[in-house]
Amino acid sequence: MRSTKFSYLAFFICLVYTGFCGFISDKQVYPRLGIVSGLTQDSLAYASGFKMIGESVPKILSPALTDDQFRANVIKIKAAKCKVLTCNLFYPASIKIAGPEVDEAKVLTYTETVLSRAQQAGIKFIVLGSSGARSIPADYNVIKAKSDFISLGKKLAQIAGKYKVTILLENLETTETNFITSLKSAAEIVREIDHPNFRLNADIFHMMREGESPNEIIEAGTLIAFSEVAEKQNRSLPGVMGDDFKPYLRALHKINYKGFIFMEGSIKNAAVEMPLAFKYLSAQIAEVYSEKKAD
């Protein structure tokens, strides 16, 4: 019986490793794995098992890049072995998106360029973490900050819809910012913005650092369109310290989440840690997603 169970699990892990996440046609069973490693590590990411990578806005989409530099980036993106699916570091700290110093016209103009370029480059998701850009003064009215951010977010969502890109609001932690520091608070904002191109990135690393329950994933439900993960202590890739992500993965499984889970962590020895991380998290996903969902 034990041997049969092991074979069953191994079969599922094999499906994840090879990228065939379904039994028949393109019916998807598991979330798909990616890594925020950038184009410089594209070949190693691909050799490690990944089919998707994340880059950053400053490196490939920023308005600070000339048109020629951007076009050169598009050529690199199209030649990459892995699909460049997402970009992070959306807004620099100099472009405030929350608090009393928001220059809305500046924000919208910047956003228009970034998302237009994202569409041209075939990038589907832009992660909205931007800790410095969204931090507010310590004595600022949080209720006003939230209301103003929702109003701005609705305009950002319209631009995202225009370019067929999805903005993903990320829950950060209190060591990085003082505004939107839980999945629960991020979900409240996404729910108020109520737009298909402005969704939620459930960052499991930040949830663990803030001691946030996996149940918040269940509460957020279909607002979640993306997830990121790293190990709690040193933000290392899955498997380096051996963290157990299964409680959070079970919450994702419970809401029938079959989207993307990207690893975003510190990498000291990429040749060792990237293939280890792919296998390690694939095994935990396979174990959880082969379980019968609890009522």
How would you summarize the topology of this molecule?
Blueprint: H1 2-18, E1 32-35, H2 42-47, E2 52-56, H3 57-60, H4 67-79, E3 83-88, H5 104-121, E4 125-128, H6 131-134, H7 142-162, E5 166-170, H8 183-193, E6 198-203, H9 204-209, H10 215-220, E7 224-229, H11 246-254, E8 260-263, H12 270-289
Parallel strand pairs: 1-8, 2-3, 3-4, 4-5, 5-6, 6-7, 7-8
Helix pairs in contact: 1-12, 5-7, 7-8, 11-12
Architecture overview:
This protein has 295 residues and is an alpha/beta fold. It has a single domain, classed as TIM Barrel (Alpha-Beta Barrel), CATH 3.20.20. Helices cover 46% and strands 14% of the residues. It is built from twelve helices and eight strands. It has an eight-stranded parallel β-sheet with strand order 1-8-7-6-5-4-3-2. Strand 7 (224-229), helix 11 and strand 8 (260-263) form a beta-alpha-beta unit. Helix 1 (2-18) crosses helix 12 (270-289) and helix 11 (246-254) crosses helix 12. The two termini are 26 Å apart. Mean pLDDT is 92; it is low at 1-26.
The CATH topology comes to: TIM Barrel
Strand content is 5-15%
Instruction: Count the domains.
Output: 1
- Written as H for each helix and E for each strand, in order along the chain, the element string is HEHEHHEHEHHEHEHHEHEH
Biggest pleated-sheet summary: 8 strands, parallel
Number of separate helices: 12
Tell me the total number of β-strands: 8
The best one-word shape is globular
Which homologous superfamily in CATH is the superfamily?
Answer: Divalent-metal-dependent TIM barrel enzymes
Please name the CATH architecture: Alpha-Beta Barrel
* Assigned CATH class: Alpha Beta
Low-confidence stretches: 1-26
> What is the terminal separation in angstroms?
26 Å
User: What class, by secondary structure content?
Assistant: alpha/beta
What's the mean pLDDT score?
92
Helix content: 40-55%
| Strand arrangement in the largest pleated sheet | 1-8-7-6-5-4-3-2
Radius of gyration over C-alpha positions, nearest whole angstrom? 19 Å
